[in-house]
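Consider this pair:
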Amino acid sequence: MSELNLPVLDLSLLDQGPDAAARFRDELRAATHDVGFFYLTGTGVSPALEERLLQAAKDFFALPEAEKLSIENVTSPHFRGYTRVGGELTQGRVDWREQIDIGPEREPVTDPDGPGYNRLVGPNLWPAAQPELQEVVAEWHDHLTGIARKLLRAWALALGAEEQYFDRHFGDPQTLIKIVRYPGKDDPTPQQGVGAHKDSGVLTLLWVEPGKGGLQVERDGEWVDAPPVSGAFVVNIGELLEYATQGYLTATNHRVISPRFPDERISVPFFFNPALDARLPIIELPAELAADARGVSQDPSNPIHATYGENALKSRLRAHPDVAERWHPDLVAARAAS
């Protein structure tokens, strides 16, 4: 463990020979069994790309309100686009942040008899006043997809499976990029930038503006700070990987505390998940690992589904009730009746 409260892992060890790669896989397995969070260095993402992404984020949030609202997510049945401050909920409470949600660029699925999660498929909303945003997001997406695939192959070997295990079961990945701004608050008590939660999918790579704290991770029943580390991503696993390992790997509660006014904070989480219709099977762990599996966390009000799309839809309906009520009243009614 480091003085940073979370382990620090170096992805470049995977390219430094068999012994270094084996050491990385051991560290990866231990970090996500014990904590569910770690810092990841050695990813090959250039400082220049990080700076372009940060500038694009700042430029978007500096646009006139009318420009941002022209791509507001309530106009998208697919939960894409801009969410104004206070427009998203976690655990039923308002998150003090504004953001853009960007997913895979696809045509809508029009099958009325298909599963509800098909409604998450569709086009993104891009600001006409900032065409360069789409370009830098596409480059960011491609780099981080490569990192995510590399991590999942290392996890597969670390868990006693064959290297391509996750590749075979993922299908066409359902990614999500959020570009988030946490405005400063001058209240005397800390405010909920985003409330305590576990991610609903498999893997999250979080980039945070240099020097800007606020992320906290729950460890042994206490909240510990996870400040940004230069050149590193904060990585955590989601509920679906906990499910697939029957609790050997753990999805961990985390939250963000709003910065103090006049400060603000930009962060960009990248969620790498299976195709919406993919069912991630339970991994047959080696006996020595299976003996340490703790079982899947059970919350009757927040069940973990084996099919990723059901998890994703559950999260979207909860986080954006205004979008859900406008576009999907039948899904809202079905959920209320269940």
User: Anything to note?
Assistant: The longest strand covers residues 174-183. The chain has a mean pLDDT of 91. The radius of gyration is 19 Å. Residues 8-337 form a domain with the Jelly Rolls fold (CATH 2.60.120.330).
